[in-house]
Design a protein that fits this description.
Layout: E1 6-9, H1 25-38, E2 42-44, H2 52-61, E3 70-76, H3 88-95, E4 100-106, H4 109-116, H5 120-136, E5 140-146, H6 148-154, H7 156-169, E6 173-178, H8 185-195, E7 203-207, H9 214-223, E8 228-231, H10 245-255, H11 269-280, E9 297-298, H12 301-309, E10 327-328, H13 336-346, H14 354-368, H15 376-386, E11 395-404, E12 414-423, E13 426-434, H16 437-449, E14 460-468, E15 479-486, E16 491-498, H17 501-518
Parallel strand pairs: 1-2, 1-8, 2-3, 3-4, 4-5, 5-6, 6-7, 7-8, 9-10
Antiparallel strand pairs: 11-12, 12-13, 14-15, 15-16
Helix pairs in contact: 1-2, 1-11, 5-7, 6-7, 8-9, 9-10, 12-13, 16-17
Length: 526
C-alpha cells in the first residue's frame, strides 16, 4: 500500500508574516490559482477579520472556481471567559464562507498560565467549545495545537487533553505545531510516536525552521505516522521561515514514493517556486533544493566532465523531474568539458580548436577579477566572440561622463553623460542626465539606440553591485561591477572589471544591452 500524505499550504497566511512580505489581494488570488493548478488539496487564505485585506480576499476568493484545492480560513479559539457564540473571532471565521476552517489553540501550559492568564481547565474548554461551535455551524475543522512539542515536553497530560478536546468536538485533523522551531528530527519522531497511538484522528505537522530542520522534521513526522503536512512555498515566514513545501513535496514523491500531488504536478514545482517568488517581489533562492537556479549546476572540472558522461553520478535526480534544468558554471576550476556543456546550454557550436584559447582567456579574466558564475550573459557573449561572432547591433565610438555639484544650491550632484555610437551606418551623439554616472550613461546609451531598437523600451536595469577586489590598493584597486537587467520575461547578469569604476560599469552596461538585443522578448520578434 502506497504512502498517502495530505499537503496543506499556508503561503498566504503564515508565509505572509515574514519580514518584508506584503501581498496585495490580487497577489493572493494569483498565488491561490497557481497552487490550485499544482493540485495542493488545502490552501489557507489568511485570517479573516484580522485586517481589511484578508477580509476582502475571502470575499473575492470564495467566488473563485477552484479545480482541486479547498480554500480554508484561519482563526483562533474563543477567548478565556467568553462563550463561543459571542466570539467575534469565530464569527469572522464563519463569515469568510469557507467549507473548512483551521483554528489554533494553546497546548503549552506555560502559555496558558503566563500569556492567557487562565487555568488549564479553561484552556481545554476553549478548544472544545470553539471546535464544537464551528461544527454546529456546518464547518469542517482542522485544529492547530500551538507550541505542541514544547507543551508535550512540559506537561504531556495537558497537551494530550487539548488534542482530545478538539477530537471529541469534531476536528478532522490534529496538527502538531513546533511554533518556536526548536525541535530536531529525533525530537519530532519520539513525540509523534508517543502521541499517535493515543488519538484516532489523523495528525498533521506544522514546523518552523529556526534550527534549519523544518523540512527534515516534516518528513520525519510523516515517516512516523503523520498524515497532513503544512508548509509554505519557498519556506517564507516569521523569523527564519516555515517548512518549505517545494522540497517537502519533491522528497515525498521522488524519495518516499508518497501520493500527495496529482500525476505530473511535481514537474511544475520549480515553476511554482519561481512564480511565488516573483509575486512576492523577492529574488528566488538560487540554492534552494530542487528548484534553485544552482540546484543542478556544476562548477568543478571533475564534476562537470563527470556529469557530461554520466549525470546520475553527480545528480541525485534528473533536473527535469522537478521542472528544473542542468547547468554548468564556467570558471577557472573548470575545463574543456565545462565549456562544451556551457556552449550546448547556450545553443552554440564551438569548434575544438577554439576551446583551448577560450579556456585560457576565461582563466586569465577570472585571475583579473571577472566572475562568470553569475554572469551568464557576459559569458555567452565571450563564447560567441571566441567562435568568430561580431555583434551587428551597434558600435561604440566613445563615451564620457562628468558629475557636477553646484555648491550652496542645496541640490544633489547631477551627472551628465555623452555617448557616440553607430547603428546601421548612422552616427548618433546623445547626452543625458542621471542621478549618478551609471544612470546618466544608461540614459544616454538608451537614447542613442532607441530609434533603431524600440524593443529597448522593455529593457530595465534592475540592480547594480560593486565589489572592491583588492582593498590594499585604495582608490587604485580593481573593482568588479555586476548589473542585473530584465526585459520583463527574462533576467540576465553582466560583469565588468577595471581599476576605473566607470569603465567597469560601462562594460557591464553595454553587455547588458547587447544581450537584450540578442535575446528579445517573444513579442518583440515580429
Amino acid at each position: 500500500m502506497s504512502l498517502r500524505v495530505e499537503l496543506y499550504d499556508t503561503t498566504l497566511r503564515d508565509g505572509a508574516q515574514g519580514t518584508g512580505f506584503s501581498y496585495t489581494v490580487d497577489d493572493r488570488l494569483r498565488i491561490l490559482h497557481k497552487l490550485d493548478q499544482l493540485g495542493v488539496p488545502y490552501i489557507e487564505g489568511g485570517w479573516p477579520g484580522a485586517n481589511p485585506r484578508d477580509t476582502e480576499f475571502f470575499r473575492l476568493a470564495t467566488k473563485e472556481d477552484l479545480q482541486t484545492a479547498t480554500l480554508t480560513a484561519f482563526g483562533m479559539t474563543r477567548k478565556a471567559g467568553e462563550g463561543a457564540e459571542q466570539s467575534a473571532i469565530l464569527r469572522d471565521v464563519l463569515d469568510a464562507g469557507t467549507e473548512v476552517v483551521c483554528i489554533v489553540g494553546k497546548s503549552w501550559d506555560l502559555h496558558v498560565t503566563e500569556a492567557l492568564r487562565t487555568d488549564l481547565e479553561e484552556a481545554v474548554a476553549m478548544v472544545r467549545d470553539s471546535v464544537a461551535f464551528l461544527r454546529s455551524e456546518g464547518r469542517r475543522v482542522f485544529f492547530d495545537a500551538e507550541h505542541f512539542f514544547d507543551g508535550y515536553r512540559s506537561n504531556p497530560g495537558f497537551a494530550l487533553a487539548v488534542l482530545e478536546a478538539a477530537r471529541d468536538a469534531g476536528a478532522e485533523r490534529l496538527v502538531l505545531c513546533d511554533t518556536n522551531g526548536g525541535m530536531l528530527p529525533f525530537d519530532v519522531a519520539s513525540i509523534v510516536d508517543d502521541v499517535a497511538p493515543q488519538v484516532s484522528t489523523p495528525l498533521g505537522i506544522h514546523v518552523h525552521n529556526d534550527t534549519g530542520c523544518a523540512v527534515a522534521n516534516s518528513l520525519m513526522a510523516v515517516e512516523h505516522g503523520v498524515y497532513q503536512v503544512q508548509g509554505v512555498v519557498n519556506g517564507y515566514g516569521e523569523r527564519t521561515g516555515n517548512a518549505d513545501l517545494i522540497p517537502i513535496a519533491a522528497n515525498l514523491v521522488l524519495k518516499m514514493g508518497a501520493e500527495c500531488l496529482p500525476d505530473g504536478a511535481v514537474e511544475r514545482l520549480t515553476d511554482v517556486s519561481h512564480y511565488v517568488a516573483e509575486v512576492a517581489n523577492v529574488a528566488p533562492d538560487s540554492r534552494q533544493p530542487y528548484a534553485g537556479r544552482y540546484a543542478f549546476t556544476h562548477k568543478a572540472g571533475l564534476h562537470a566532465s563527470g556529469v557530461a558522461r554520466l549525470s546520475g553520478a553527480y545528480e541525485h535526480i534528473s533536473p527535469e523531474a522537478v521542472g528544473n534544468h542542468r547547468g554548468v558554471v564556467a570558471s577557472d576550476l573548470g575545463g574543456a568539458a565545462t565549456l562544451r556543456m556551457k556552449a550546448a546550454e547556450f545553443g552554440l557550436n564551438l569548434d575544438d580548436p577554439s576551446i583551448p584559447k577560450l579556456l585560457d582567456e576565461l582563466k586569465g579574466r577570472e585571475a583579473h577579477g571577472y566572475t562568470f558564475e553569475v554572469a551568464d550573459a557576459s559569458l555567452e557573449l565571450l563564447m560567441r566572440r571566441a567562435g568568430g561572432w561580431s555583434q551587428p547591433f551597434f558600435r561604440v565610438e566613445s563615451y564620457r561622463v562628468h558629475v557636477e555639484e553646484r555648491v550652496g544650491d542645496g541640490e544633489p550632484p547631477l551627472a551628465e553623460a555623452t555617448v557616440k555610437v553607430r547603428t546601421n551606418g548612422t552616427r548618433h551623439i546623445e547626452s543625458a542626465e542621471g542621478q549618478g554616472p551609471v544612470g546618466a550613461l544608461d540614459n544616454a546609451l538608451r537614447k542613442a539606440l532607441s530609434n533603431d531598437y524600440p524593443e529597448l523600451e522593455h529593457i530595465v536595469l534592475e540592480d547594480f553591485r560593486v565589489r572592491v577586489l583588492d582593498e590594499t590598493h585604495g582608490t587604485g584597486a580593481v573593482v568588479r561591477v555586476l548589473i542585473d537587467t530584465s526585459n520583463g520575461q527574462r533576467e540576465w547578469t553582466t560583469v565588468g572589471v577595471s581599476e576605473n569604476i566607470i569603465e567597469a560599469s560601462w562594460e557591464a552596461l553595454v553587455d547588458g544591452y547587447l544581450y537584450g538585443l540578442l535575446h528579445p522578448r517573444e513579442d518583440d520578434t515580429s
